[in-house]
Amino acid sequence: MSNIILADDHLIVAQGIASILQPEHQILAIAKDGLELVELVKQHQPDLVITDISMPDMTGIAAIATLKRINKHLKIICLTMHDEQEYAEGAIAAGAKGYVLKHEASESLIEAVNQVLNGGTYISTSITVDTDKPKLSSRQISVLRLLAQGKSARQVADELFISPRTVEFHKYSIMKLVNAKTSAELIQYALNHGLMD
User: Fold this and answer.
1) Domain range list for the chain
2) Which CATH architecture has domain 138-192?
């Protein structure tokens, strides 16, 4: 039996997910947003996290990047209604090992959980993920997310406890990776990949 934390801003949905997973797995806690998810994971140290993408305060993808920085071995599955390829690629780039669509949860979620817990990956068959796409590190995703919120390099640096020069270096690296020529294109990339809160 594995210990799981769920994150969804709709409690009734989270309870439905929990009922699919129990009694084979133990649900330690349910978070209502990305910030609470990060705190609960620090507190409970679960084997697996299952998170939605669209949540207040911090998106699921931003939370994944944060969690992977805290514990790179943590296994994470996105459970979402977003069937766009960009969201799936954003989640996988951030560190998720599974991507399941909510309307397929009753058939697919148990299989996804088992595969991810056993070291594999699971992506809903209706989604194509281009694994050749640039893979941003969790640190780069954090920098990009904050820059996309309109924060200055100094503000980003203060929030992430790094130097402004390091922020500029990350920004330059990200722009090269995602082929963005301007800050506006960088923000558009963050929007397209579900990194904006």
Assistant:
1) 3-123, 138-192
2) Orthogonal Bundle (1.10)
Q: Over the stretch 55-64, which tens digit does the pLDDT of each residue have? A: 988 899 999 9
Map residue 48 onto helix, strand or coil.
Answer: strand
For position 197, what pLDDT does the model report? 59
CATH of domain 3-123: 3.40.50.2300
Amino acid (one-letter) located at 23? P
CA distance 137 to 170: 10
**How far is C-alpha 65 from the chain's CA centre?**
6
Residue type at 35?
L
pTM comes to: 0.73
Q: Per-residue pLDDT tens for 99-116? A: 999 999 999 999 999 999
134, 48 contact by CB (below 8 A): no
Residues recorded for the chain: 197
Where in 72-133 does DSSP place strands (E)?
Answer: 75-80, 98-101, 122-123
